[in-house]
């Protein structure tokens, strides 16, 4: 694992620093108290402390998300995150990248609930001397996130538990359509850093919600996000980002399959409704990006 990332990790059991060990072909991270965490052959490390009550997205949902994002349909979201992160870290144009190796002086971007790591990769592309860490509870997602970018690592971790990071380790925290743990985000974020939160706007995917009877965005979503973070963060700014998508029925199926409606919709009924849609299907992408500073 990249030393620039490893130095910021902490044992999820005792909070001690971690070091990489190798025994034959097996690799692991181990702390001075001999708590050991295996690095999977796909590249991610399991930093869960005990069991978690949820396992995250299924392999099918992860595959759907990977295909849809790779097609560039959510490029506007990735571009907004990259621009916000660049302003936070550099305030303007980025400097010449640092040489490989080094210590905690390198900006660390942590994506909490990273999924496949697609947004993290976009942000790292805009920050040439930063390193990144994808955290997620879904193993199928982490298998992809571990190879999403050469300056990124991936770890199995539950956002609702204590994060396996040192205090003030992160320069930028990404939280894209994912759960928020205000207290832990505050602990691991540098006081000069920022938390970037992406949530759906009221009319996000409105055409599909109406036509396919999907889950609707909670009208109080913005208030709930603010409530979950207000004890630890102040929202510095908020912007809406929109795009008009024109999708095939196959792409609509993929889009629905990668979101929360995949857990609730009847597959046969959903397929029937999608088959009745005229192509191309117009769909509104509408998200809110909040920039939050630690209190």
Tell me about this structure.
With 295 residues, this protein is of the alpha/beta class. The protein has one domain: 3-Layer(aba) Sandwich (Rossmann fold). Helix content is 30%, strand content 27%. It has 10 helices and 11 strands. The chain has helices at residues 3-6, 59-70, 75-89, 118-126, 139-145, 182-188, 206-212, 221-229, 249-257, 267-275, and strands spanning 19-23, 26-30, 36-39, 45-46, 108-112, 131-136, 152-156, 170-176, 189-200, 233-247, 281-294. The strands form 2 sheets. It has an 8-stranded mixed beta sheet, with helices on both faces. The protein has a 3-stranded antiparallel beta sheet with strand order 1-2-3, with no helix packed on it. Helix 6 links the parallel strand 8 (170-176) and strand 9 (189-200). Residues 98-104 have low confidence and may be disordered.
Can you write the helix and strand succession as a string?
Answer: HEEEEHHEHEHEEHEHHEHHE
Helix content: 25-40%
Task: Write down the CATH topology.
Answer: Rossmann fold
Number of domain modules: 1
CATH superfamily heading: Vaccinia Virus protein VP39
Mean pLDDT across residues: 88
Instruction: Just give the CATH class.
Output: Alpha Beta
Beta-strand content bin: 25-35%
What is the annotated CATH architecture? 3-Layer(aba) Sandwich
Uncertain segments of ≥5 residues (pLDDT<50)? 98-104
Distance between the termini: 32 Å
**How many strand segments?**
11
Question: What can be said about the biggest beta sheet?
Answer: 8 strands, mixed
């Amino acid at each position: 694992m990249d030393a620039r990332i490893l130095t910021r990790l902490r044992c999820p059991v005792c909070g001690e620093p971690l070091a990489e060990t190798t025994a034959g072909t097996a690799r692991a991270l181990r702390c001075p108290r001999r708590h050991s965490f295996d690095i999977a052959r796909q590249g991610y490390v399991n930093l869960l402390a005990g069991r978690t009550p949820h396992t995250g997205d299924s392999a099918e949902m992860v595959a759907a998300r990977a295909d849809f994002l790779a097609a560039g349909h959510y490029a506007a979201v990735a571009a907004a995150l990259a621009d916000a992160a660049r302003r936070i870290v550099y305030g303007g144009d980025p400097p010449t990248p640092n040489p490989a190796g080094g210590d905690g002086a390198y900006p660390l971007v942590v994506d909490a609930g990273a999924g496949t790591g697609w947004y993290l990769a976009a942000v790292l592309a805009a920050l040439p001397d930063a390193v990144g860490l994808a955290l997620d509870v879904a193993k199928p997602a982490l298998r992809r996130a571990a190879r999403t970018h050469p300056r990124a690592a991936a770890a199995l971790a539950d956002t609702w538990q204590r994060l396996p990071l040192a205090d003030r380790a992160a320069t930028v925290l990404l939280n894209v359509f994912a759960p928020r743990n205000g207290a832990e985000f505050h602990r691991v974020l540098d006081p000069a850093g920022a938390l970037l939160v992406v949530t759906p706007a009221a009319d996000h995917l409105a055409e599909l919600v109406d036509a396919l009877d999907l889950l609707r965005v909670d009208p109080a979503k913005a208030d709930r996000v603010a409530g979950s973070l207000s004890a630890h963060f102040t929202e510095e700014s908020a912007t809406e980002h929109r795009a008009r998508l024109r999708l095939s029925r196959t792409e609509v199926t993929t889009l629905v399959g990668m979101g929360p409606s995949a857990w609730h919709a009847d597959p046969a009924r959903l397929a029937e409704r999608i088959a009745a849609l005229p192509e191309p299907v117009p769909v509104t992408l509408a998200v809110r990006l909040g920039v939050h500073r630690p209190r």
